[in-house]
Write a structure and sequence with these properties.
The structure is a homodimer of 482-residue chains. Chain A is an all-alpha fold and 482 residues long. The first copy, chain A, is 64% helix and 1% strand. Chain A has helices spanning 3-19, 22-31, 36-54, 68-84, 86-90, 98-109, 125-153, 175-202, 207-218, 236-249, 253-262, 267-270, 272-294, 300-315, 332-342, 355-373, 390-416, 421-432, 451-465, 469-472, 477-480; strands spanning 382-383, 386-387. Chain A has a two-stranded antiparallel sheet. In chain A, a hairpin with a 2-residue loop joins strand 1 and strand 2. In chain A, helix 10 packs parallel to helix 14 (300-315). The termini of chain A are close together. The relative contact order of chain A is 0.11. Chains A and B meet through helix 15, helix 16, helix 17 and helix 18 of A and helix 15, helix 16, helix 17 and helix 18 of B. The complex binds potassium ion (2 copies). One potassium ion binds at residues 111-113, 220-222, 317-319, 434-436 of chain A.
């Protein structure tokens, strides 16, 4: 372990993050919204905080190894979560407790989008901007995490993507890979954000709303500048733009990279994960539309409209809303939350367990049936005609069971604080899948939840974003040995 | 596939089952309870029904092969479920619909113990006896299934137990193995039942109640002759006897066989599965007792008493009750139902996913963490110092995911009929884990549930008892080819 080098990196990171407070300062100056000093003080605190961590280790250089990646990754998200909460703490509108400030910051950076705020429309513009900005920055972090770090660490079968990422894979050094891969994909990320913002603006959003929502759309974050979320605009055009960009952002960014290089789109429809993702989306949309029509919840055109938007929003783990799906009839609220367990594709900004893992699990489940009928046959699990290593398959299973175990533990924890089963179930889904909204008490926001529960849910967001194992591994003595 | 041979066997089975209607006829004669003719007609219907199936194929002989085992097993349970429901249909007290009669019969034979009956205390003795008797017969079937058939079929990793079962394993013929293994273990099963009945009787139950409850205890069935279940007797001694026999019956019957042969008990505490089972039971009991004391739900002595009984009853998937745990505070109802997912040990009469599978899943989850820290090490999954074949491990994963997939589908199905999420969740757990009682609407009985839901739950009991795959495999075209 290169603790000193790691601390130097984290110190630098905090200082760099203080620069990220400049845009909200500019927003506050433009709108003169009274939140200026909160951001100025936060900038100073971050800069000083970063210096304090960095200074003692400023001369410790050296390449980080793969195993350091776990600690760096976890420290990256926890530190930014903590320092990101400072503006929320310092501002008087909203006037937040430390728990709430941390919850909002963590929810932003992990692109979860669960909020403890109410009356969002009345908040200072700079605070509104900052929330969206946190999600966008979080999305940048996720891309590096998903495309460069997770495949290298091999978390939950993600070594599957080692060969597919751009750049050389030969050496085990962490730093050069990240830089190279990140640059290419951030370019795509920024371009998508720009296109999305232009789309929103052209469709009638104010420039401020267009920029803010483009941030949280491409990051699959789900924060909005309005209590009514995308429903505030009541515009089919905006909903279509939002839907398109949610779907794009939930697809493997490596595919976008390929599309950029080759100026072609056909590979999207050849990729087994993307195809399965489209299949899940379409079948859920059809089912939801039918149920909404048959139960006369809406007229048929509205049924389609709301079913498309809410399904895409929940299944991609965005968490925007145009209607309150938590009161839809029968199994629809349950079903939609269940789709968020699959979530986005690997190497996207989406949450959940990732579509490729669900696909592998189903394929291996089917292989087990084949093995029962043909006990002596050797049957590989194939995706797109390619046999998957047994090691990857078993890593996916390990991920799946760890995910469920953590899920049940968190539910029990929440229920111990007095929360009812449905709220607890959906609150864990909303955070562990980095989704945002839940059912029951947490269908609109997380304000009414008790503080210990909020801390557990912060941990849950972090677990989800770090693919469970990255965080769990730090709790084993094994990791710290040697 | 040897369809004709299979039909001959099933026909014979139905005729043999008609003999099983003689004991309730004797009970009805003794008590003169008015239900006599229901059983007499049922006996005739079963005898004739069996003849009709058997007669055309009476000359089709030949050994059944392993693959035939799936069809025989599924037909065994579905046919007995159907024919077992005849007395419930014919009797006028209770006066049941066809759905309810089938539900009760299936719940008995699968040793689920979920009931659609209310005011049980007032029913004719022969009907009461018959319900308990069905569970006992079901338990006999489960032992054959678990000890002889599942290991041979290799369902969900149960090939793990191939070497451990008594008798020669060399040939692939189904029949001799079953007969030999069954005889040895039925002997143990009958002895346990006798001891349990004597215990109950000595502790103050009437002879009738003692016999009836010994049937459902050793079968881990959970049916009772009283609405208040074991709580009716309000006797600590009876509760202790019941607890002891529930635990014994939830342990691998191969271990009892070994205890019988070697006159020793130490192997129980050396077996990794049994140890983990004890650990799960004890830790849940401690936790439940503490919560009950801290929340002042009961006084401390009652807290221990109820926590021990309900935990053992739910965790072993027995489903007896001495108090209504569904209204216990916080997470306790949820936690107890969660323990039923682990259920009994393999090759016991218990339900759930089986303790050994949960142990293997946890061990492999831990291996994944080890692999993250030491990416190049070859790390086998070991149980009791013995490395487990990768094939077995992946079969267990396949089982786990199929179980969860079926679980979610059944929940969606139930909720589509208008059942709320908590009731649906617990009703599927109660049936798929062959547990019995649930939460919400189904905490006391399943009477208020709609008919389509009851059919789904019958299917769920069958899926649970047949370890999901045995039934699912019949729905694949692959199974029927060649
Ligand atoms: K989100
Ligand atoms: K039971």
């Amino acid at each position: 372990m290169h603790i000193q080098v790691i601390l130097r990196v984290i110190g630098l990171l905090i200082m760099i993050f203080s620069v990220a407070l400049l845009p909200p300062i500019v927003v506050s100056l433009i709108y003169n919204d009274g939140a200026l000093m909160a951001f100025v003080y936060a900038l100073i605190i971050n800069l000083v905080g970063g210096l304090v961590v960095w200074f003692p280790f400023r001369n410790h250089r050296g390449d980080l190894k793969i195993r350091d990646g776990f600690l760096v990754t976890v420290l990256f998200w926890t530190t930014l979560g903590l320092f990101g909460s400072v503006p929320f703490l310092l501002t008087t509108s909203p006037d937040l407790s430390y728990t709430d400030a941390l919850f909002e910051s963590m929810s932003g950076l992990t692109t979860t989008g669960a909020t403890i705020l109410t009356a969002i429309d009345d908040l200072p513009q700079s605070i509104l901007f900052y929330r969206q900005w946190l999600q966008w920055l979080g999305g940048m972090g996720i891309i590096v995490l998903a495309v460069a770090i997770m495949p290298m660490l091999g978390v939950g079968g993600m070594q599957l993507y080692r060969a597919e990422t751009p750049g050389p894979v030969k050496d085990s050094k962490l730093t050069p890979r990240i830089a190279e891969t990140a640059k290419a994909l951030w370019y795509i990320y920024a371009t998508l954000t720009l296109l999305c913002a232009i789309g929103y603006w052209a469709a009638g959003m104010t420039l401020f709303d267009a920029i803010c929502h483009s941030f949280s759309t491409v990051a699959i974050g789900g924060f909005s500048t309005h209590d009514a979320s995308i429903g505030y605009f009541n515009s089919v055009t905006i909903e279509i733009i939002c839907t398109v960009f949610m779907v794009i952002s939930a697809i493997n960014f490596g595919m976008h990279f390929y599309a950029w290089r080759t100026r072609s789109v056909w590979h999207y429809f050849k990729d087994p994960e993307a195809r399965f993702f489209f299949f899940l989306l379409l079948s859920t949309i059809v089912l939801a539309t039918l149920v909404l029509i048959l139960t006369s919840t809406y007229e048929w055109s509205d049924s389609l409209r709301y079913a498309v938007f809410e399904t895409v929003s929940i299944a991609t783990t965005s968490g925007f809303s145009t209607s309150d799906f938590s009161v839809w009839p029968h199994f629809l609220p349950f079903l939609l939350i269940v789709t968020s367990f699959a979530g986005g594709c690997a190497s996207s900004t989406g949450g959940g367990m990732k579509v490729i893992r669900i696909l592998l699990i189903l394929k291996q489940g089917f292989r087990e049936i084949q093995r029962l009928v043909h006990p002596n046959a050797v049957i590989p699990v194939k995706v797109g005609g390619k046999a998957i290593q047994e090691r990857v398959v078993s890593a996916v299973w390990g991920f799946f069971s760890a995910y469920l175990l953590v899920y049940v533990m968190l539910m029990i924890g929440l229920m111990a604080t007095g929360i009812d089963q449905v709220t607890a179930w959906s609150a864990v889904a909303a955070t562990l899948n980095n989704l945002g909204p839940g059912l029951g008490e947490v269908s609109a926001n997380f304000a009414s939840i008790n503080d210990p529960a909020k801390w557990m849910l912060c941990f849950s967001m972090l677990l989800g974003r770090l693919e469970v194992f990255t965080l769990l591994v730090l709790f084993t003595p094994m990791f710290w040995q040697k």
